[in-house]
Amino acid sequence: PSDGINGYRCPSGFYCPAGTGLELPCEPGTFSPVPGASGTSPQSCVPCYPGSFCASIGLSSPTGPCTEGFYCPANFSSVSPTAFLCPQGHFCQSGAAHPTPCPAGEYQPARGSASCVPCQRGFYCQELVTGDARRCPPHTYCPAGTLKLACPG
């Protein structure tokens, strides 16, 4: 939009209250990507995209992706690349919007991880959100990186 006085287009990274001639920067956690597209209030600025962060004022695009081992969720204006620590039993790659559960046959005992670890032979990791490998129970066998399997016969 224009400033309402002389048709001036509001620059990207800002919003321009109607009739004031003011250019006010978008707050941290938000941005305004297109010149002239910003509205007349702070709510006109766009929340930072899921998986990214917007660290300062007056941004025309996100600052960058969230750091691996962390996530920046949707509907949360992230101002830091380390907004939320990835929980145990999950992994978070760079730019993650949410933690991803470790797949069956893998686990992650630590928080803040970018990958999961395959289960060792003799252990299983069947649950999708397990933080620890479990010893293979009697009458089953557990090949590396797999689930527990019943012994034949």
User: What's the CATH architecture of the domain at 102-153?
Assistant: Ribbon
Q: Give the count of helical stretches.
A: 0
First-residue to last-residue Cα separation: 75 Å
From the alpha carbons, calculate the radius of gyration and give it in angstroms.
24 Å
What oligomerization state is this entry in? single chain
- Report the portion of residues in β strands: 15-25%
CATH top level of the domain at 102-153 is Mainly Beta
CATH topology title of the domain at 102-153: Tumor Necrosis Factor Receptor, subunit A, domain 2
Shape: rod-shaped
| Pattern of helices and strands | EEEEEEEEEEEEEEEE
Main sheet overview: 2 strands, antiparallel
What percentage of residues falls in helices of 4 or more residues? under 10%
Poorly predicted ranges:
none
Strands, total number = 16
Order of the strands making up the biggest sheet: 1-2
Mean pLDDT reading: 86
Q: In terms of structural class, how would the helical and strand content be classed?
A: mainly beta
InterPro entries: Growth_fac_rcpt_cys_sf (IPR009030)
Protein name: WBC30 protein
SSE order and pairing:
Blueprint: E1 14-15, E2 24-25, E3 30-31, E4 46-47, E5 52-53, E6 64-65, E7 70-71, E8 84-85, E9 90-91, E10 100-101, E11 106-107, E12 117-118, E13 123-124, E14 134-135, E15 140-141, E16 149-150
Antiparallel strand pairs: 1-2, 3-4, 5-6, 7-8, 9-10, 11-12, 13-14, 15-16
